């Protein structure tokens, strides 16, 4: 599977999620949730959103890029979400927190004016766990 979507919008995002559901069937829930969270936030907070999806060894790899301001470091710290009351009232970063908890690898970088998020799912491990 190799797929690159340029100028990702909500319509393309929904089509992508459906294709991932079809392709990965029983293990698609976490994959679709992560794509929805990262993709939607890129569309909402950035511009010129792009996603590159490919298989590498046993991993499904997705790289999201969007132009915009750098995501604040605090959103990548688990301590930012430790209080359940704060989680319910605090705005921002919850999608990143959820995504980091459900993927097998998460990497973030900021280069120029681009936010780059790479997420990986160990497909083989997840399929074996589902059996």
Shape: globular
Reported for the largest beta sheet, the result is: 5 strands, antiparallel
CATH superfamily: Histidine kinase-like ATPase, C-terminal domain
Kindly provide the name of the CATH class: Alpha Beta
CATH topology heading: Heat Shock Protein 90
Gap from first CA to last CA = 23 Å
Low-confidence stretches: none
Instruction: Tell me the number of strands.
Output: 5
Radius of gyration: 15 Å
Helix content: 40-55%
How many domains? The number is 1
Q: Classify the secondary structure makeup into a structural class.
A: alpha+beta
Mean of residue pLDDT?
A: 85
Describe the structure in your own words.
This protein is an alpha+beta fold and 131 residues long. The protein has one domain: 2-Layer Sandwich (Heat Shock Protein 90), CATH 3.30.565.10. 43% of the residues lie in helices and 31% in strands. The protein has five helices and five strands; from the N terminus they run E-H-H-E-E-H-H-E-E-H. A five-stranded antiparallel β-sheet has the order 1-2-3-5-4. A hairpin with a 2-residue loop joins strand 2 and strand 3. Helix 1 packs antiparallel against helix 2. The two termini are 23 Å apart.
Summarize the structure.
The chain contains 5 helices and 5 strands. With 131 residues, the protein is α+β, with helices and mostly antiparallel strands. The longest helix has 18 residues, at 28-45.
Write the layout of secondary structure elements.
Layout (H helix, E strand, L loop, with lengths): L1 E5 L3 H15 L3 H18 L1 E10 L2 E9 L16 H6 L4 H9 L2 E7 L2 E9 H8 L1
Antiparallel strand pairs: 1-2, 2-3, 3-5, 4-5
Helix pairs in contact: 1-2, 2-4
